[in-house]
Amino acid sequence: MDQEKQKAISSLFEVVSSIERKWANEWNNHNVLGFSKTHILILDYLSQEGPKRPSAIADRLKVTTGGVTVLTTKLINAGFIEKTQHATDRRASQLEITPDGEDILEESRQQVSEIINNMFGMLSAEEVQTLRDIFAKCLLEVEINRHD
């Protein structure tokens, strides 16, 4: 890699890190729900995909099953998800979003929408799509290289 490209990538890393910190700070400053972004991602996944085993959640979020246990315990205790028996494998449990979980998810979507609009509202739809495509390409390459 030439030196010019290396400098540009280093600068990009700094900008992306700053955006991530800003996003996290915005979430924390406006988060009246008391849940992390990952909690909300779990609720969203269960809302969109239906009941899932903890291992499926771990795969989707790229965390350990132990991490899923810690995260989902807080959601279970709050009444936003419930643990049920798997429909076809009675030895396995699955997690399912509750009506209260759907309500809190909708509230969080409104918060996320405000944060995203504040941070990216000045971009055109094409610019947002280009950013998404570039970052998706980078993530895919990282995944491919990790498995080599």
TrEMBL record:
Gene3D superfamilies documented for this protein: Winged helix-like DNA-binding domain superfamily/Winged helix DNA-binding domain
Transmembrane segments: none
Matches recorded under Pfam families: MarR
Name under which the protein is recorded: DNA-binding MarR family transcriptional regulator
Keyword DNA-binding: yes
Molecular function, one GO term: DNA binding
Keyword DNA-binding carried by entry: yes
SMART domains in the cross-refs: HTH_MARR
PANTHER family, alphabetized: MARR FAMILY REGULATORY PROTEIN, TRANSCRIPTIONAL REGULATOR, MARR FAMILY
Keyword set, alphabetical order: DNA-binding
